[in-house]
């Protein structure tokens, strides 16, 4: 059964950098997992703790936020605030007995299409190695 597991992954990507990098990766025909659902946000600063937790609660096996390079946020410090939110969510998941590695934050520029594909592949492998989310397993039962 473990071979059949295909993780459900949500990626919150900022419009100006990470989403543009994903678009570039697609234009370059770079391969990354099709089970990563990309949600475009105006800035990673708009991603709140509740969005990350709700994604996990609703059955996502992994969630990551991808924004501008640190110091280059189009909204000055949105990505820095979100990094703290992601760390808080990781701590919360750990306290709940859920692997904190299921949530991550990445920074990249719009010209980093190959890096976007690399992140997607690495995160997809990480989540596949962790297996299904404990919450997803409970929902199925």
Automatic annotation (TrEMBL):
The keyword Metal-binding applies. It comes from the Bacteria. This is F420-non-reducing hydrogenase iron-sulfur subunit D. It holds the Pfam family FlpD. Residues 9-131 form the F420-non-reducing hydrogenase iron-sulfur subunit D domain. One of its GO terms (molecular function) is iron-sulfur cluster binding. Keywords: Iron, Iron-sulfur, Metal-binding, Oxidoreductase. The gene is mvhD. The keyword Iron applies. Its EC number is 1.12.99.-.
